[in-house]
Every structure is written in structure tokens, then in C-alpha cells.
């Protein structure tokens, strides 16, 4: 059961990595809000981290990469960098976790090194969780704030896109993965301390007491016989 938890964490790590890559690549961070005068669905607009996509009725979708990073709002600029960091952390976490799993021989038989490696992998997953959650929540807050801003025109209002919902689910997976690994590290460290304490006690029992004086046995004079 203990080894299965580590394998589960490894599988969740793969899912978290795939999720972060998907969220970063999807253009559906912001989508058109069909309200007011924009009620008739004639044109749909998607805005992502790297491109915008337009889809008109009876026409295929056309996407265009942003001409400059400076034209993006602050939250999308920050989301670009943080999501790339999140992908890098997820990759490193996955590799480090693979070294720390008990069933692998990548770290040899050194239990302490494996435990430390597992703790590092769990910590990196938690950092990846933060670098994913922060940009997703920031962009979501910006969309909601502009949506309820009376000064914003209806055609400029946006709704939460699919990428944001996938991002929140991915951040939850990364959080669960990090917690599982840190819990397993704490359990394995406790088992390691118990093993070392047992070895220390066994060695202590085998050491002779220094307070006792060893006196070699001598033969009694009664049993000595003299031969002439």
C-alpha cells in the first residue's frame, strides 16, 4: 500500500505536467461574453497567452500570434512567465520523484538519500502548484472585475475560458501530489529512525560492561597432582 501511494504520486505528477502544458498552450483563457448588444453569436473571440483566435459563422477559425508582448495586459504577461516556470518545475519534480521512489534503484540502497530526494520532489510540486494557481486566479479575477465594471463596453467584456478551469484542476492535482510525497517522506523518515534505533540497541547489548572485572578461571590446587 505504501509503494502504491508513491506510484500514485508519480501518475498524478504526469497528469499535472500534461495539464500545465495544455493550459499554457490553449488560447481559451478569455472568451467572448455574449451579453447585451453582443447577444447574437456572429463572431467568437478567444484570447490566450500566445495568440488570439477568431471564429465567424460558417467560417473556420483563424488564429494570430501576438505581434508584441507589450500589447498584452499585465496579468497575461505575468501568466506567460509563471506558466513556463510551472512546466519546468513539473518536469524537474517528476524526475526527482522518480529517483526517490522505493521501487527504483536509481539511488542505490541508500535509504536516507532516497528519502531526501522524495522530500525535494514533493516540495517542488508544491512550488509548481503555486506558480500555476497564481496566474490562473489572477487572470480569472481580472475577467470578473472587468465583467462587472460598468465602464467596460459589452463587446470588450470576457468570460472565463476552458483553460482557466483546466488550470484550477491541474493546480489541485499538483497540490495533492506534493502532499502525498511529503507525507510519505515523513513516514519513511520515522521508519528509518526506528531501524537505526533498533540497530543501536542491538549493538549496545553486545558490548561488555566496562564496570565488570574479568577474572580468568584457575585450576584448584586440590586437583593438582605431582608426579615424581
Brief summary of the model shown:
This protein is 58% helix and 9% strand.
Keywords:
228 residues, alpha+beta, Butyryl-CoA Dehydrogenase, subunit A, domain 3, 5-stranded antiparallel β-sheet, 4 helices, 58% helix, elongated, disordered C terminus, Claudin, transmembrane, membrane, cell membrane
Written overview of the protein:
The chain is of the alpha+beta class and 228 residues long. It contains four helices and five strands, in the order αββββααβα. It has helices spanning 2-25, 74-100, 111-147, 162-206, and strands spanning 30-32, 43-47, 51-56, 62-65, 158-160. A hairpin with a 5-residue loop joins strand 3 (51-56) and strand 4 (62-65). Claudins function as major constituents of the tight junction complexes that regulate the permeability of epithelia. It is a multi-pass membrane protein. Belongs to the claudin family. InterPro entries: Claudin (IPR006187), Claudin_CS (IPR017974), PMP22/EMP/MP20/Claudin (IPR004031).
Amino acid at each position: 500500500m505504501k509503494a502504491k501511494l508513491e506510484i500514485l504520486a508519480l501518475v498524478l505528477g504526469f497528469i499535472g505536467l500534461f495539464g500545465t502544458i495544455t493550459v499554457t498552450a490553449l488560447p481559451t483563457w478569455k472568451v467572448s461574453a455574449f451579453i447585451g448588444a453582443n447577444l447574437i453569436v456572429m463572431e467568437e473571440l478567444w484570447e490566450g497567452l500566445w495568440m488570439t483566435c477568431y471564429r465567424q459563422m460558417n467560417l473556420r477559425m483563424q488564429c494570430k500570434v501576438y505581434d508584441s508582448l507589450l500589447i498584452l495586459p499585465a496579468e497575461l504577461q505575468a501568466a506567460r512567465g509563471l506558466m513556463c516556470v510551472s512546466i519546468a518545475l513539473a518536469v524537474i519534480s517528476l524526475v526527482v520523484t522518480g529517483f526517490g521512489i522505493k521501487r527504483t534503484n536509481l539511488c542505490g540502497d541508500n535509504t536516507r538519500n532516497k528519502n531526501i530526494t522524495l522530500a525535494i520532489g514533493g516540495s517542488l510540486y508544491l512550488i509548481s502548484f503555486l506558480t500555476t494557481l497564481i496566474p490562473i486566479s489572477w487572470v480569472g479575477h481580472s475577467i470578473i472585475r472587468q465583467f462587472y465594471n460598468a465602464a467596460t463596453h459589452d463587446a470588450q467584456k470576457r468570460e472565463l475560458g476552458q483553460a482557466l478551469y483546466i488550470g484550477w484542476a491541474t493546480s489541485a492535482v499538483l497540490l495533492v501530489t506534493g502532499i502525498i510525497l511529503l507525507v510519505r517522506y515523513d513516514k519513511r523518515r520515522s521508519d528509518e529512525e526506528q531501524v537505526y534505533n533498533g540497530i543501536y540497541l542491538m549493538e549496545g547489548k553486545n558490548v561488555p560492561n566496562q564496570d565488570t572485572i574479568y577474572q580468568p578461571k584457575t585450576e584448584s590446587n586440590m586437583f593438582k597432582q605431582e608426579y615424581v
